[in-house]
Amino acid sequence: MSSISNPNSSSSTNQTKNKKQKTDLIPQTNKTQFPNWLELLEDIWVLIFSKVLTIEIIENVQKVCMLFRRICKQPVTFRTINMTVPSGRSYVNLPRSLDNMTRYAIDSSAGGLIDIYLEYRPAYSYSDIPLRTLTYISERCKNLKHLRLGYLYTLTDERLIEAVKRLPMLEEIQMIRCPFSYKTVEAIGHACPSLTSFGLNGLCCKVPDNMCNNEYYMSSDKYYICNERALAIAKSMPKLRHVQLIGNSMNNEGLKAILDRCPHLISLDLRSCFHVDLSGDFDRRLANTHLLYPNDSTADYGHESYYIHDPIFRGVLK
Predict the structure, then answer these.
(1) Boundaries of every domain in the chain
(2) Is pLDDT above 90 for 293?
(3) Among 33, 35, 168, 286, which has the highest number of CB atoms less than 10 A from its own CB?
């Protein structure tokens, strides 16, 4: 029996071909497939948040979505606290806000705080807030290992020593532009026998290149050399493995004392230590140490590290 052809089959085939031809004429949009960031493991988000300023986490990050809010409620998010005020940002009643936000972050860590950086820029009047904050830390953060302090002009030497004595787990202390005396540096070393990392970053006086051979300038510049703090480090911190002395005003006497009394050094940061001369025997002694030289860039440092004093015009060029 012969098959009966379907009269509509040819027309349907033609319609399919026509549709395909029309589709071919339409430009296809290249759709980029973006990853679903919400599918990232929470541990990865915690790692990302650890690189964000704590003020930004409190003020912005935790308000993004429910996932971020849930992560920001976890103590592990506040194991590291960086209380630096972002540049260009202003807060109503900033000193009180900083104090409250620091306490909130400390409480959120539930005793798990490991690393904290407190920065109080001199542009603001903070009165006793650094003291109260540091006391709050020493009472609630017995597991603290890394304490970094910046611009604490209103905190007395005695109060700082009292606070660090109550933090027995401290392995690192870093001070940036803090006016504590060499006696305080030595007392900190004796109070924290487990210290393996210490930073004492200041503001060094640099000799202009065109004045290096000027006897009048060079003799007046000797006034800005100070080895007392370097000698205090050498006397009280023999276990140090990492030392950062950006903008320190010591000369070779202070450096030699540190090398003599701190035999376990792995890294030494001497950026902007312009009174240090690393020629001669120092090359040999520092051969196995990761060394940053006085003239190395401080672009990643984020703070002023030196100034140029002109004794003729009694001015300061930065």
Answers:
(1) 38-170, 200-318
(2) yes
(3) 286
Neighbour-count burial for 106-121, b at 16+ CB within 10 Å, e otherwise: bebbeeebbebbbbbe
Interatomic CA distance for residues 219 and 151, integer angstroms: 30
* Residues 204-261 pLDDT 10s: 887 665 555 555 444 555 557 899 999 999 999 999 999 999 999 999 999 999 999 9
Say what the alpha-carbon torsion angle 147, 150, 153, 157 is, to the nearest 10 degrees: 20
C-alpha triplet 3, 4, 7: angle, nearest 5°: 145
pLDDT in tens, 70-117: 988 989 999 999 988 765 555 544 555 777 888 999 999 998 999 999
Among the residues of the chain, which ranges form H helices? 9-25, 42-49, 54-59, 66-72, 94-108, 129-140, 157-165, 182-191, 215-221, 228-236, 252-261, 281-285
DSSP string covering 96-164:
HHHHHHHHHHHHHTTT---EEEEE--TTS--TTHHHHHHHHHHHH-TT--EEEEE--TTS-HHHHHHHH
How far apart (Å, rounded) are the C-alpha atoms in residues 144 and 10? 82
β-pairing, 242-244 vs 204-205, is unpaired
- In terms of DSSP bridges, do strands 197-201 and 146-150 run parallel, antiparallel, or are they unpaired? unpaired
Burial 79-100 (b: 16+ CB within 10 A, else e): bbbbbbbeeeeeeeebeeebbe
Question: CA angle, corner 57, sides to 51 and 198, nearest 5?
Answer: 45
